[in-house]
Design brief:
Blueprint lengths: L3 H20 L2 H8 L4 H15 L2 H11 L3 H27 L4 H6 L4 H16 L2 H30 L17 H10 L3 H27 L2
Helix pairs in contact: 1-8, 1-9, 1-10, 2-8, 3-7, 3-10, 4-5, 4-7, 7-10, 8-9, 8-10
C-alpha cells in the first residue's frame, strides 16, 4: 500500500464515489432546487442540532488523543471555528421558526446520529490517523453540501442571507489535514485502518441525509 502523500492521493481516489454519495444526495439536490418540503428542512435543522450538540466533548477528546502539540493546536483551532458555526446555525433554526422547546423535544433519528457516534468512537479508541482521515472526509463533504444548498435556501425558501450564513463556508485549505494523514501513513496496517475510517465516515454521513430525507 502507498505511504505518505501517495497514500493521501490514493485515499482520495478510493473514496470519491462515497464522497459523491454525500454531496449528490437526493436531499442535497432537492434542497438546492426548492423541491424539499419545508417540514423536511425543519427536520434537517433539528437533526443537525443533535449531530453537533456534543461537539465540545468531541474536540476535547481529540485534543487529548493527539500525540503532539502541532495536532493539538490544530484541533483547538478547528474547535474555535466550529463554535462560530454553531452561533450562525442558531440563526437558521430561528428563521425556520423552531423555538428552543421544540428543538429540545425533537427526537434524534438513529441514522442521523451514526456519523457523530462514529466520530466519538474514533476520538476515544482509534489511532490519531484514523480520526484525522474521518475528519477530512466529514469536513470536505459538509463544506460541499453547504456550498450546494446555500443559494437554494435563500432562493426557494425565503431565508435571508443572515439566516443561512452558516452554510456560506469559504473554500477549504486542507493541506494541514493531508499532511497529518501523510505523517501517519507509515505502515500498511495504519493505512488500512485510515482507509476504513475515511470510508465509514462518508457512509455514516450519507446515512444522516438518508434519515433526514425519509424521516426515520
Amino acid at each position: 500500500m502507498a505511504a505518505g502523500q501517495d497514500f493521501v492521493r490514493q485515499l482520495r481516489r478510493d473514496t470519491e464515489p462515497l464522497m459523491r454519495g454525500v454531496t449528490e444526495h437526493v436531499f442535497v439536490r432537492d434542497a438546492s432546487n426548492g423541491l424539499l418540503p419545508r417540514e423536511s428542512l425543519i427536520r434537517f435543522a433539528e437533526q443537525e442540532h443533535h449531530y453537533v450538540r456534543g461537539i465540545y466533548d468531541y474536540f476535547a477528546m481529540c485534543v487529548l488523543q493527539a500525540p503532539d502539540l502541532d495536532l493539538k493546536e490544530w484541533f483547538i483551532e478547528v474547535a474555535s471555528r466550529e463554535v462560530g458555526y454553531l452561533g450562525l446555525y442558531r440563526n437558521f433554526i430561528q428563521a425556520l421558526g423552531i423555538n428552543p422547546d421544540r428543538l429540545r423535544a425533537s427526537p434524534p433519528l438513529p441514522g442521523a446520529l451514526a456519523a457523530t457516534n462514529y466520530q466519538f468512537r474514533l476520538a476515544g479508541c482509534a489511532t490519531p490517523g484514523e480520526n484525522m482521515a474521518a475528519v477530512l472526509m466529514i469536513e470536505e463533504s459538509w463544506a460541499e453540501v453547504c456550498r450546494r444548498i446555500h443559494q437554494g435556501l435563500q432562493t426557494h425558501y425565503g431565508l435571508s442571507a443572515e439566516a443561512v450564513a452558516g452554510f456560506n463556508i469559504p473554500p477549504l485549505d486542507v493541506r494541514k489535514e493531508e499532511s497529518f494523514i501523510a505523517r501517519f501513513a507509515t505502515t500498511d496496517e495504519l493505512c488500512r485502518l485510515m482507509s476504513i475510517a475515511a470510508e465509514f465516515a462518508l457512509i455514516y454521513e450519507a446515512m444522516f441525509f438518508d434519515s433526514v430525507y425519509v424521516g426515520k
